[in-house]
Every structure is written in structure tokens, then in C-alpha cells.
Amino acid sequence: MSSMMSVDEKGIESNEKCIDHKVSIVECDEIGVIHGCLFADAGFKVIGLSPNPHTSELLRNGRISAFTSIHSSVKKHLKEGSLSLSSDIRKAASASDIIVLTIPTTIDSNKKPDYTTLEKACREVGMGLRKGALVLIAETAGPGVADGLVREALEQTSGLKAGHDFGLAFSPMMANESEALEETLKKPRILGAIDGRSLRVAGHILNMITSSEVIQVSNMKTLEAISLFQSMKDETTQALANELACLCERLRIDFQEVLSVAAEGKVFNLPSPGVINRRAWKDLYLLKREAENVNFNLRLVRLGRRINDEIAECTFRLTKDALKACGKTVRRAKVSVLGVSRRQNTKELPGRLTKSIVRHLRRKVRNLQVYDP
Predict the structure, then answer these.
(1) Of the CATH numbers 3.40.50.720, 3.20.20.80, 3.30.70.360, 3.40.50.2300, which one belongs to the domain with range 4-218?
(2) pLDDT given for residue 97 in this prediction
(3) What is the C-alpha separation between 331 and 258, in angstroms, rounded?
(4) How high is the pLDDT of residue 2?
């Protein structure tokens, strides 16, 4: 029987004691791999789980994370045995004291959140969940999902009660796609839980695997809102920058100079015009569904999304104007797109809008090259 929920701060304060506790990372995508390495670095025995054999093969080769700095850490832990791989969630859960859920929510063709994979994984975890274990959710979800769908699926399949028989906590990694891994890991971890004991134990665990501050909130639903509201702020700020940049083009004002001088004089700070990151694109639809459930219209962020979606057409228009100034037609032009990743030194697939820009150019120009080192 797992005793994780009865541990105090002295119970696993050393690497020698950590090795007695197993951690399962359910779904080894990028966030999952990062957590797996953090737990392995702290001395825990880690099981990385993915039902997809292709994902496991990529992980064995250290290629699953876009953060190249973590590849060597993955290979090291696999070689030393502190990290192992499996596809059997139920079996791994039955042997684990801590289960970390890092399953990203997908958005379906109707732009609705699809929690099918998360719910299925929770039911598999519940079939093997031991009394006294801690379940930690480390991916963004809509308000009420942690204390609703996740809790219910775990309780129904395990026959155990959250907050009494097992711990349940929520602490998503606030990762920004434009940041390096080191910057992300320095950010405070915000933590919510179903009860005081889960909050205490999860807080102690997070303090062991990260050197950043752990900030506690009163409940998991509040934390879900904090995570999504961060993305909404990014979305609307990017929309403002994009709209003002388009205005500056019409007024023949150098928008980059405006940004530079405003930042230097501490007047205001805005991002450079560009595409919004994939996380913000997804998070809007997570929040939008919950808003619709209470009959609330998210007017500002929906308008921001429309503005940001228009950046592909704006990029093409600027390209067309630049070619015209050089005496060239669009159809006969050769155009190169230099760089598709938002971060340096990352093997990162381009986001939805980046692909949209490339597709738009490909339809219009004779010769298009896309290059990223």
C-alpha cells in the first residue's frame, strides 16, 4: 500500500529515500518528459507511460521534447534505470506512489474541447490506484475539470474517495512557447488541491523537484482559471500589437521603433507583431466552453482571436508590397521563410498560424523555401 499521503517533510528528504517511491508519468509528451526528468533528478524511480509505441521509440532516442537541452537528461536516466518506459497504465499505477497526469486536451473539428483521452486515462489509473497515493494533474484544463471529470473517473473506477483514500492536486506547468526551458523552470509553480492534506503533500513534492517558488491557492478551480487567464492575456495583448502594427503600416510609422522607444522609456510594453502561440489558441476554446455553460459571451478574447487569425493575410500583403517595390510580381517571385520555431535551438513543429502563412504564400508565389536551422 502506498504511504505517500502520510509522508512528512523528513519522510523523503534525501535521494536515498526518494528511490523507494515510484512515480508514473501518464502520457510522455513534452510536459510529461520534463516532469519525468525532474522527478528522476530528485532521486525518484520514474515510469514514463504512453499507449503510442511511436512516442516510446522517440523517447528512447531522446527526441520527444522540443527542448534540446533535455535530450541528454532523458538518455542518462534511461541508461541508469531511473526512468523506464511502459504502455500499461493500470499496472504502473498499481506500483506507484505518485501519478502525474500530463495529458493535453485536444480541440475537435467543431472547436470544442475533447476530454476523451484524459477520461480514458483516468479510468485506467483508477483501476490500479492504490490507497494513499497522490494524483497530480500537470496539464491545463478547463475550470471544473480537475474536481469534476478527473475526480469522478478516478473515484468510480477505484472505489476510493479523493481527499480521504488518495490525494488529488493540480499544478500545471506555465510554459510559454517562446521561452527556453530554463526560463520556464524558474517560474513559480502554482498549486491547488482537493483538501489540505493533498495540498501539503503535493507542495512538499513540488519543492523537491523544482527550485522555484510554490504558490498555493484555495482550490483547483481557481488555479484552472489562473492558467487559462494567462493565455487570454497573451492573446489580447498580441492582438493589440498586431492591430497597431497594421495601423502603423498605413500611417507610414515604424512600429518597431515605437516598441523600442516605449520600452526604453518604460511607457508601455507590447510584443512584436506575429502569430499567437498554440497554447493560447487551445486555451481559448477550453475557457469558451465553460463560459457558454454559464451563458457568458467572451467578447474581447474572441475579437482578439479574429485579429490574430488575420495575421496570415497581413503577412502576405506586406510581402506583396515589398515585391512590388522591387519591381517584381508575386507569381514570379522566389520567397524564403526563415525560421518557423518560436524558440531558438528547439526541434519544434510550427504552429497553426505559421503553417497558414506558409500555405498562403505557397498558393501565390512560384517558388517558396522554408528554412529553420
Answers:
(1) 3.40.50.720
(2) 95
(3) 33
(4) 54
Ordered DSSP codes for 2-68 = --GGG--TTTT-SHHHHTTSEEEEES-SHHHHHHHHHHHHTT-EEEEE-S-HHHHHHHHTT-S-SBG
> What is the model's pTM?
0.86
Instruction: State how far the Cα of 228 lies from the Cα of 225, in Å rounded to an integer.
Output: 5
| 361 close to 316: Cβ distance less than 8 angstroms | yes
* 3-state SS, residue 361: helix
Question: What pLDDT is recorded for position 1?
Answer: 46
Closest alpha carbon to 20 in 37, 32, 3: 3
Give the Cβ contact number of residue 76 at 10 Å. 15
Note the Cα 76 to chain centre separation in Å: 24
Enumerate the β-bridge partners of residue 137: 101, 170
Distance CA 127, CA 78 (A): 27
Q: Where are the domains of the chain?
A: 4-218, 219-309, 315-373
Please tell me the predicted confidence (pLDDT) of residue 337: 87
C-alpha radius of gyration, the chain, whole number: 23
Residues of the chain with pLDDT under 50: 1
| pLDDT (0 to 100) of residue 47 | 95
Non-local (6+) Cβ contacts of 292 within 8 A are none
- Strands (E) across the chain are located at 22-26, 45-49, 83-86, 98-101, 106-107, 113-114, 134-137, 167-170, 189-193, 214-216, 334-338, 367-371
Instruction: Output DSSP code: residue 176.
Output: -
* Sole residue written with cell 497581413: 314
* Helices and strands (DSSP H and E) totals, the chain: 15, 12
